[in-house]
Design brief:
Translation Initiation Factor IF3; about 180 residues; 11 strands; 4 helices; alpha+beta
Length: about 180
């Protein structure tokens, strides 16, 4: 049998008493209470930790800081004495890396199409298509109708400054049935 009763009304700790089957005199059980600090550290580990490490708040990591780059998982320990300079450099490298990765992904998803078959093939591969364009709204509406499918339809997004070279002597865009823009 377990009985929980306060030692006295002002004490926040409880006495847990139990009686053994052979003895009926109550005994006091050893009680382990988590301190507030232990609970806070446990919660911090659960909230801020993952398979790639633990991100500690600055007040916990008062002597040095470990930066973990989420973009490439690099880890760097930085003494607090030159934290500002090294964190700035670290953030610049993260920015450069994120830009380079995004540019590589963008470049890998662009296809140049000079025929309707190349256009449709690239569209089915969910690529961005760089194709000669006449800038006419009626032609865009026609392309939307002709390409409408389960994944949507093709639409013009922007006109890049650098255009792909067109075959010499071309005066119209047979794949869209329109004249070349001036």
């Amino acid at each position: 049998m377990f009985v929980s009763s306060p030692k006295d009304q002002k004490s926040p700790t409880n006495q847990i008493q139990f009686a053994q089957r052979t003895e009926y005199e109550p005994k006091v059980a050893f009680v382990f209470f988590w301190s507030a600090l232990n609970v806070q550290i446990g919660v911090m580990v659960m909230v801020h930790g993952d398979d790639r490490g633990l991100v500690l708040p600055p007040k916990v990591a008062a002597i040095q800081v470990r930066l973990v780059r989420r973009d490439n998982s690099d880890k760097v320990d930085i003494p607090v004495s030159n934290l500002v300079e090294q964190v700035k450099d670290f953030l610049d490298r993260i920015q450069e890396n994120l830009f380079d990765v995004a540019k590589q992904k963008r470049d890998a998803s662009i296809r140049v199409a000079k025929t309707w078959d190349e256009f449709i093939e690239a569209l089915n591969q969910k690529k961005m298509i760089l194709a000669p364009w006449c800038d006419e709204m009626e032609v865009e509406e026609d392309v939307k109708k002709r390409t409408k499918g389960e994944t949507g339809a093709a639409k013009s997004l922007c006109t890049p400054f650098k255009q792909p070279d067109l075959p010499e002597g071309l005066t119209s865009l047979p794949m869209f049935g329109c004249p070349l823009p001036d």
